[in-house]
Every structure is written in C-alpha cells, then in structure tokens.
Design goal:
Strand order of the largest sheet: 1-11-10-9-12-13
Number of helices: 17
Radius of gyration: 25 Å
Number of strands: 14
Shape: globular
Structural class: alpha/beta
Strand content: 15-25%
Helix content: 40-55%
Oligomer: single chain
Length: 433
C-alpha cells in the first residue's frame, strides 16, 4: 500500500479521489438507471419481468416472483445447523440493541389549557433491499428487517436477486424468515427498487426503501426519493483505522483488508503518526493479500483507494479522520476512549484492538448499514427511527388561545399573511383587548 505524508496537497487529492466513488459522480450509469425506473413506473410487470429475465432468471414471472412458504421450508433444510445457531445468537444481539432505540409518543399538558406532544407512528409498508451479486449477505437481512419489525411496521417487503434457476440463496431466505419478513420477491437491481417504489401488478407499493446495493440500486433509490422515503444513498464500503505506535500492525492490516475485499471501489485507509507503523502495516498487507480468496478484488481496491497516511501530530490525524468521515472507524491507540470523544464524523466507531470491524458486521448488535462517502457528516446508521414517522400534536383551549391571539395576529401581519391573522382573529371578533 502507498504511504503518504499528510499535507494540504495530499489531503485535497485524497478527498477528491474518495468523493469520485459516490453515486452522484457516476453519470455514465444515470441514463441507464433512469430508463429502467421510468419503464417500470410506466409499464409495471411487463417492464419488471423483462429486466428480471435479462439480469436474474428467465423463469420468473407473476406466478412465482414471490417466494413461497415451501421455498422457505426447503431453505431451512439446506442450511447447516451451525449457521442457524450462530445466526440466531447474532439475531438476539441485534434485536436487543435496536430495541433500546424505540421511541414512544409523548404529551405535555399545562394548567393554562394547552397540550403539546409528538405522536410516533410506524410506517405502513417498507421495502428492504438485500444485495446478491458478488457475495451473499444474510447479515444485511437482519440489519434491514429487525429495526423495521421493532418499529412496528405492518408489512416488510424484501427484494433480493435470485440465481439463473430462480432460487434465492437459502441463507438469505432463512435470515428473512427469522427476522420476520412478510413478503419476499425474487428481483434485484434498479428494477426492484422501482417496482417497490411505484408498485406493479405483482409487487405492492411501499412507503420507504432501505438497504445497500450496487451503483444501479443506489442511483435508483436516488431517483425514487420523494415518491418514497429512502434511508440514504449507499456507496462502496470503506474503513479508516486511526492508530498510533502502540497498535499491532498485523491486526491493522487484517482489518483494512476486511473492507477492501467487498469490491474494487472500496477504500481502506490508515491514519497514524507513526511512519514505522505505516511501513510495517504495508508489509503485513502484502503478506495477507497473497493468501486471500478475493485477492484480485482486494488488490484493485488497494491500488485505487488504499492509503497509509502519516500525520505529524495527533491533532492533524484526528482532523483527517473527521474530514474523511468514514463509514467504519477503528481507533487503535493508547487511549481509544479519549480519542473517540474528539471524533465528530463516523458511521460506526470501533474501540481497541479487539473490536475489529467484522464484529459490527455480524454480531455485536449495532446496525451495519452505515453512511458512506463522507455522508457520516449528516447521516446516521439505519435504526428504528428510519421506520417511524412523527406527528406534532397541538391543542389550545379557547382561554389559552385568547391569551396569545394578538401576538399571533401581529406576527402573521408582519409576514403580510393576513389570512393567517384572520384565521386567529375571527375567533375573537367583537372582543376588546
């Protein structure tokens, strides 16, 4: 991996390169995705299945696009018992973590005759997208569906690609069943997003779509945003490790590679104040890559978006961390809890040398669907909040409104909105003062 000393020029070049990975900078795909989305919107099933036949399986049609109970039962027979045991333990952790996020309606009353509050209502129907391209992700099934079910969503619809024989990976089906999916559809890509957003003859419309996917899925979510809600527009995976001279270079190298193997556009970055650590991590990376099954993908990722950044001071290193705003941030320093308090932008933060990123991907409990490509500056991980909406509640008695009506009318008239003022004033016509 390349070792780069941090200065203004290298920082500018790095940020420019990383931001090019985002969905907003993939113009070559936009027209293709727009065509798919518009066609599914216009033609419904006819367009949906033409794309499913082209990209997934020619056997899929209106009669078998929805996964049956029989297919789910078959999937249970195909997965091994150890997977099911591990999966259920992970589910307990993920459910327990997200249950603590649940919000409740609240109301405050006063002796003056007012009541203000917030009513929390689960979304009616949510579509969750689970990728199925270069790898299989039963873990993403949990991260999408569990918070939706805890929120109280009435209907959770899952879309995921099938193979050329029309089968969905059995681990994915078992995961969906265990997590509580209500409907599962064999469809992937932009066409799946469009089908859930607009509805077709075979696929019911939903109110929000969550979950990661490739560039086609990301751009499709961007296009349908506003027709339905979305969580965020996910980009390629990324990891940043903040480490000092106390870090184990072998651990750091292994953790960087854990994200580089996702795809060629994934980024893996070390930020450190130790030149020696950077050099040792580079050597460890080279040793690991030779023996990893996805070494070709890893090498391309490292060649394009892998960096070992050396800062002069801890302050400069932390500034770089906050500038990059990484999806995953590991802090492997002498005082990780102290350094964590200085981090403002990160999707998920892993503290200490035994809290490596895959712990969060599979088992610990927090959601692994995280903001990418610098959006951790303003986006949060998927949570129960993504599956509820909030309504403000306002009640004033006549006496309460009477005390303040002149203030409201005055404010409205200052904005030249006389109908607003009249709406209040008409209730007190003929009264003095």
């Amino acid at each position: 991996m390349r070792i780069v000393r941090i200065d203004q020029e290298s920082k500018r070049e790095l940020m420019k390169r990383l931001l090019q990975r985002g969905a907003g900078n993939q113009g070559e795909y936009e027209e293709r995705v727009r065509e798919i989305v518009e066609r599914v919107k216009r033609e419904g099933d006819e367009a949906l299945f033409s794309y499913v036949h082209r990209f997934d399986c020619e056997k899929i049609n209106a009669s078998n696009v929805r996964v049956t109970r029989k297919e789910i039962e078959e999937a249970y027979r195909e997965v091994d018992e150890r997977f099911l045991g591990v999966f259920k333990r992970a589910l307990v952790n993920i459910w327990g973590y997200h249950e603590k996020q649940k919000r409740y309606s609240w109301f405050d009353t006063t002796d003056e005759g007012t009541m203000l509050g917030q009513k929390v209502t689960p979304l009616r129907a949510v579509g969750v997208y689970v990728p199925g391209g270069k790898a299989v992700y039963p873990s993403s099934v949990l991260m999408n569906i569990v918070p939706a079910k805890i929120a109280g969503v009435e209907r959770v619809v899952m879309a995921t690609p099938c193979d050329r024989e029309g089968k969905v990976n059995p681990m994915v089906l078992v995961a969906a069943s265990e997590a509580g999916a209500d409907e599962i559809y064999k469809m992937g890509g932009a066409q799946a997003v469009a089908a859930m957003a607009f509805g077709t003859q075979s696929v019911p419309k939903v109110d929000k779509i969550t979950g990661p996917g490739n560039i086609y899925v990301a751009l499709a979510k961007k296009l349908v945003s506003g027709v339905v809600g979305i969580d965020s527009i996910a980009g390629p995976s990324e990891i940043l490790v903040l480490a000092d001279e106390t870090a184990n270079p072998r651990y750091v190298a292994a953790d960087l590679l854990s994200q580089a193997e996702h795809d060629e556009m994934a980024s893996a970055i070390l930020v450190t104040t130790s030149q020696e650590l950077a050099e040792r991590v580079s050597a460890e990376v080279d040793n690991f890559v030779k023996n990893l099954s996805r070494r070709e993908i890893i090498q391309k990722s490292l060649d394009h978006y892998g960096y070992l950044l050396v800062a002069d001071t801890k302050e400069e290193a932390l500034e770089m961390v906050n500038e990059i705003a990484s999806e995953h941030l590991e802090i492997v320093t002498r005082n990780p809890f102290e350094d964590m308090m200085k981090v403002k932008n990160a999707g998920a933060i892993f503290l200490g040398e035994y809290s490596s990123e895959p712990l969060g991907d599979y088992f610990a409990g927090p959601n692994h669907i995280l903001p990418t490509n610098g959006t951790a500056r303003f986006f949060s991980p998927v949570s129960v909040d993504d599956f509820v909406k909030k309504s403000s509640i306002i009640y004033y008695s006549r006496e309460a409104l009477q005390r303040v009506h002149q203030d409201i009318e005055y404010f409205a008239k200052k904005e030249q909105l006389t109908a607003h003022a009249n709406s209040i004033g008409v209730r007190f016509e003929g009264e003095i003062g």
